[in-house]
Design goal:
Low-confidence stretches: none
Keywords: Hydrolase, Metal-binding, Metalloprotease, Protease, Zinc
Number of helices: 4
Oligomer: single chain
InterPro entries: MPN (IPR037518), RadC_JAB (IPR025657), UPF0758 (IPR001405), UPF0758_CS (IPR020891)
Largest sheet: 5 strands, mixed
CATH topology of the largest domain: Cytidine Deaminase, domain 2
Mean pLDDT: 86
Helix content: 25-40%
Distance between the termini: 34 Å
Strand order of the largest sheet: 5-4-6-7-8
Protein name: DNA repair protein RadC
CATH architecture of the largest domain: 3-Layer(aba) Sandwich
Shape: globular
Order of helices and strands: EEEHHEEHEHEE
GO molecular function: metal ion binding; metallopeptidase activity
CATH superfamily of the largest domain: Cytidine Deaminase, domain 2
């Protein structure tokens, strides 16, 4: 991940290139800078004290991807962040997710809890039947190794849907 240096000039976001010249930032560069900023704000040990904070964090991490990305927040017993991990990348409307790999990572990190998340590039945050089935399979697999599934958040641009808030978990 490259470090970007930004400056504001006449309401335009500028980025400095390798030669030190400023030029208009692309959308992808702006999104990458936002991801870097949220990463600095929520580093290992940061507490997720509210669903709103979790959703803001995930919106900043996942909004703007043009393909599905399935992520997991691995948390300790006090719901502090151990690690944010982009586990699986897919196409514009699906991603293959393997419960075995999520369980392995939870055990490797000694996580006590997880928050699952993925984006819907379509802009519709409503969970599909496949999303519901997958969430249940992941929850069951993680429960076998005593890792709690706290939520599954779907991000679609600025909108989010929380399985926990909608009684789907």
């Amino acid at each position: 991940m490259s470090q970007l240096s930004f400056s504001s000039f006449d309401d335009a976001l500028l980025v400095r290139d390798a030669q030190g010249r400023y030029m208009p930032a692309s959308v992808d560069q702006i999104l990458e800078a936002a991801r870097q900023a949220i990463e600095l704000k929520m580093q290992r040990g940061a507490e997720f004290t509210s669903p709103a904070l979790v959703k803001e964090y995930l919106r900043n991490k996942l909004a703007g991807f043009e393909h599905e990305v399935f992520t997991v927040l691995f948390l300790d017993t006090r719901h502090r962040l151990i690690e944010y991990r982009e586990m699986f990348h897919g196409t514009i409307d699906s991603a293959s997710v393997y419960p075995r790999e999520v369980v392995k990572e939870a055990l490797r990190l000694n996580a006590a809890a997880v928050i699952l998340s993925h984006n819907h590039p379509s802009g519709n945050p409503e969970p599909s039947q496949a999303d519901r089935v997958l969430t249940q399979r992941l929850k069951e697999a993680l429960t076998l190794v005593e890792v709690r599934t706290l939520d599954h958040v779907i991000v679609a641009g600025a909108n989010t849907v929380s399985f926990a808030e909608h009684g789907l978990l």
